[in-house]
Write a structure and sequence with these properties.
The complex is a heterodimer. Chain A contains no helices and eleven strands. Chain A is mostly beta strands. In chain A, strand 4 (31-37) and strand 5 form a beta hairpin. By secondary structure, chain B is an all-beta fold. Chain B is 0% helix and 50% strand. Chain B contains no helices and twelve strands. Chain B is globular. The relative contact order of chain B is 0.33. Classes of the chains: A mainly beta, B mainly beta.
């Protein structure tokens, strides 16, 4: 069964460093998302992406964040200068083209720890 | 804005017990409602969904009914198994906007089933 994959599973970085989190969505999907979950808190929407541009972004998704689909398979989230409060689990999701409310399929997540 | 409130966890039950995990929501329109499940070490998986009032979503013995009058979507299962141990997330999506199915999640409820 097709699945969303994410790498790495755990990333440790120093404050101020850039990190890139990688996702491979399901191959025929067209819509891509990033969410994050700070430990003990809710899963929060960050950004949605379609047709090579951002569809919507939350207020969390400030200028330090960017997303890219550099080729036909990868979908990346970059944090330019990490802060302690960026420590969280980051989930990638994708969905297909099925009219109303297609299911979003999630990856296993990348745990980001900023020291 | 939209929000989801879930029953506080963790919840511990004996095998074959009846399960209810409460979920209520606040939304301005007519959202679609979801339950996602996260097994240890895995991503979020869609468990069931309902797209309009009085719809019942069901899967793997779990059920939830979209109750507009009480703005609720409680998850139930008649007889739980050890394999149901996981974290359960209630979520809603905004009015269907093609390609922009942002999900709003609750905090998650950790369920542990004891043999």
């Amino acid at each position: 069964e097709p699945e969303v994959t994410q790498t790495p599973s755990h990333q440790v970085t120093q404050m101020g460093q850039e990190v890139i989190l990688r996702c491979v969505p399901i191959s025929n999907h067209l819509y891509f998302y990033w969410y994050r979950q700070i430990l003990g808190q809710k899963v929060e929407f960050l950004v949605s992406f379609y047709n090579n541009e951002i569809s919507e972004k939350s207020e969390i998704f400030d200028d330090q964040f960017s997303v890219e689909r550099p080729d036909g398979s990868n979908f990346t989230l970059k944090i330019r200068s990490t802060k302690l409060e960026d420590s969280a689990m980051y989930f990638c999701a994708s969905s297909g083209l099925a009219g109303i409310t297609d299911t979003q399929y999630f990856g296993p997540g990348t745990r980001l720890t900023v020291l | 804005g939209n929000s989801v409130t879930q029953m506080e966890g963790p919840v511990t039950l004996s095998e074959e017990a009846f399960l209810t995990i409460n979920c209520t929501y606040t939304a301005t329109g007519y959202p679609s409602l979801f339950w996602y499940v996260q097994y240890p070490g895995e991503g979020l998986q869609l468990l069931l969904k309902a797209t309009k009032a009085d719809d019942k979503g069901s899967n793997k013995g779990f059920e939830a009914t979209y109750r507009k009058e009480t703005t609720s979507f409680h998850l139930e299962k008649g007889s739980v198994q050890v394999s149901d141990s996981a974290v359960y997330f209630c979520a809603l999506s905004d009015l269907p906007s093609f390609g922009n199915e942002k999900l709003t999640f609750g905090t998650g409820t950790r369920l542990t089933i004891i043999p």
